[in-house]
């Protein structure tokens, strides 16, 4: 199969002469321990809230709890204080042998935990996982954990990316799961944790021979916590942990544990956690479905934990995850027809020790591998690697199973071939004085084929030889430079009954096994063979040898092989950093580039970025225990290892309701030096178990797609403007430029933005808007109060349904960036969210995706909003308020140059953003649109620009060459205002403004002169005066039309350009034949003949300078002879011909902005409108905010409305004692800035100056406004 590993084993080869056996020199192992170490001073906490779930996370491998009172214990929906999970924590343990001190070889157990374990030696070193230094913003804890959508949280550079020769450290770029600046998730956190300060066993075990001070197991954990707002998984948080053995010691028996603590419904004492072995999901449920006060009468849901990925074991010859045998019908990827582990294979096998005890070639086979049916369910079993090509797609030219081989295997208990290695004299031979069976690696080569029977006759099998010379045909798939079979090797193999030839390598100066070539014969002479060396220097070893045999059994994510064959040359060949067009190693080389062995992700769909390439062992241990019963400081590591990590112990009975914890583990497996294994889980919050399982299925689908799926558009940035009974929202357009990289990667158009939705609520969780249920009655969609979508014919409901409901795409009403909500009530606080959505792809079953609503309610009640969410309270402005305005004439901006008849109006969107005294200029570019054969050329507007000329020496172009002047288009908002264009699309006569000085004359008509195919007159943007003068006093111009020339002749008409005052040339066409016809040269009068047959009017064809400098035909002027009650013009009559003109390059508009102000006289007149609302105050009122606390009454509020600016309100008892002094917009720039002027309401919290609650009764108030006046009144409080 295709493969490439940019960094890997770099070794040399020597063909030895030890009994003609071949061996390689010492392997230069690629892994070198890093210098990365922990720094507890860089501990950080943060909150993930990229979808409907909010949870506190830490960078020491623990979530929900960080020791901070403001922690969020998996709150769902977010901002509701409804919690479900109190803790998740990762443990990693291993059984090791002491390698230093007084008892070398002693068995030790070391278990790393995330928190809650103190240093029992009394030292300063931490005995828990701690953050690796350098992966946070060093400026302080306020920046939290490095987060994809908050660049301020990133470190100055990424320590693990310093090896990038093109961009060392990736400064200013995101260190994404799939590569540099790849933002796959809506929210992604990244950090690393390590265990090097765990010095408890340092006197007996040192994990890193290059650093004797390094403690623990020498582990580094790359951690990513991700959330998507995609509707199918918007109630899911993904936790991904990559555990690397960064030391020098191989770890033979390793286990991972996830510790889970419940608190479903906030009342933790009545929970029932359990593990559903059929669904492979851990659940946390509430016994009675009743939660704490934050749930009110709403039922409590459930929490579920789906284990998406567990560690793999690529050495046991068992298809642990069944994706290469019984669980995968795709024979192009899997080994179809693979034999299945049978019950007899378990005889004599200890499933816990990592050893092939019974010699059948499999390691730690157990009852979960064989077919079974019981009360818990059924399983077809899993396959194993028998070394035989069971599905017929193996390497061409491979050796095949013969009847002789079948007969030889029949004598063996396990039908092994060659049989009975235990007594095989082949392995008793000596090499360098050592028996072959005593060399390291013997356990890997002693069993070749397994379970050989008559059904295998004629099938290909692994022989260790590249029979089709893959490297010669395709260097990408093969290994150029591999050694080739020699005649000596053929002769040597001929001496063995099975045609065997041993191949060795050296490691650390010691000879060890590589492999055994089988059935080596003369036909193999000159063929490449396996030698366990990287002969082509690409890092992968022995590519293209024995390919397509035992596919996807014992697959792994660090072998440089595209095990499942999903790497795509057209979209995935991006190189080591995962990003196209960076010129990094492996880019555009037509081979998959793996990131294994490096700190880079590599290309998609291979190794590190392909989750399917791991032979996962699944969940092997489940324990339920009372909360608080586990003391990590006092519990020995051996106890933790034996109780929680040894496989086979499953607490499947549901405990009595209480406060319980759950530990779910996966193990045991090897973790050699430099190797990475992974454990990933999805935390799912749902209304019930059924919905949680659906969420699990969607999470598994996301996992199966390597977390690659359609992405939401970019998040809009919205601004809210409070008004009197209204709220105005406006937002930017960056979402419309979004490109979905996933769609592009599969060959589709990534520019799939479709529209905007606006949601409104009175609570920060937006529960008001969550009213649309799915087919099962579960609240699923929010209902928008407004929606704007592209006019592109994509309307109605999207074909893909989500549990029976469909996403509404809009009705082609057009994109807008301003929305005014006039259905609000003054004094009530509203939350608005503007989301962008795409159109989905029905053809490949992708529903529309929408940007998340980003809002946080902190424990102290503070509200933090994301860029697309605003919190706003509509209110009347201060008394006497005058809105901001732009310099105008009757509502239109003044033109300072040009002659356009088009006009520009404006609207103030945000008076707070209007810059007092700022001056602006609007200029245009025009263009000449060529006419058709029968239509004239047209001069029209091309674009406009808005320029800030406040500083004339440094003009600033705010809008550059925009075409948004056309009807129906929206101009971007600048400095709080929006231009509104009323353009004339092209030059045309303004009939209403044109006419003679004597209304009795036939009306003048002006149209472009078109004489196909010779003349197409230009719509010249000029105004004209037609003067009737003495007969023959003005000479017309000749005009050539095709082969005919209209001659010049004396006339009684003069044409004047009004703007220049200059005469305009014209040709005279006597079309009514009253003056000798068009070819006559006799004097002519400008007339019409309504009684002629047919009726006609003379033409004046204007000849003027054109835009290119030449003279040409423009307009023809005639008389409207249909007006029977009128006459022809005569000497002294004068006509004015006015044109309506588009915006042209000669037109300039200039205007000055004026901010909002206060009319103090008007404010004085409005003092009597000051009111107290509500009056009386009875216990509560609708203006009061939701209680942000879990106990107590919550905030109270009385509003004083219609106050003048800078007002001071004093509240007294009826006895005259001062209760409280309040100042309108206190601290806001003397209360006269634009934002303050919009707010004429003062809110009193019913507390005294001393912070005490007031009693019920009648109170007096006194309002004082400097320069305006005073007002007094009374109000009552009834508690």
Examine the coordinates and then state which fold CATH places here, giving the name of the CATH topology of the domain at 40-148 and 191-312 and 616-704.
Answer: Beta-galactosidase, Chain A, domain 5
User: Helicity level, as a percent range?
Assistant: under 10%
**Unreliable residue stretches:** 1-29
The largest sheet has its strands arranged as 8-11-12-13-27-17-16-15
Instruction: Estimate the mean pLDDT confidence.
Output: 89
How many distinct beta strands? Answer: 76
**Gyration radius, rounded:** 42 Å
Strand coverage percent: 25-35%
Question: What composes the largest sheet?
Answer: 8 strands, antiparallel
CATH architecture of the domain at 40-148 and 191-312 and 616-704: Distorted Sandwich
Coarse morphology: flat
User: What is the terminal-to-terminal distance?
Assistant: 79 Å
CATH class wording of the domain at 40-148 and 191-312 and 616-704: Mainly Beta
* Discrete helix count: 10
Structural class: mainly beta
InterPro entries: Ig-like_fold
Region (Disordered): 556-606
Care to give the gist of this entry?
With 1279 residues, the chain is mainly beta.
Q: What features would you describe in this structure?
A:
The chain is mainly β and 1279 residues long. Among the domains are: 40-148 and 191-312 and 616-704, Distorted Sandwich (Beta-galactosidase, Chain A, domain 5), CATH 2.70.98; 718-872, no CATH class; 884-987 and 1150-1154, no CATH class; 991-1137, no CATH class; 1157-1278, Immunoglobulin-like (Sandwich). 5% of the residues lie in helices and 31% in strands. The chain contains 10 helices and 76 strands. The strands form 24 sheets. Strands 8-11-12-13-27-17-16-15 form an 8-stranded antiparallel β-sheet. Strands 5, 6, 7, 14, 24, 25 and 26 form a 7-stranded mixed β-sheet that branches. It starts with 12 loop residues before the first strand and ends with a strand. Residues 1-29 have low confidence and may be disordered. InterPro entries: Ig-like_fold. Residues 556-606 are annotated as: Disordered.
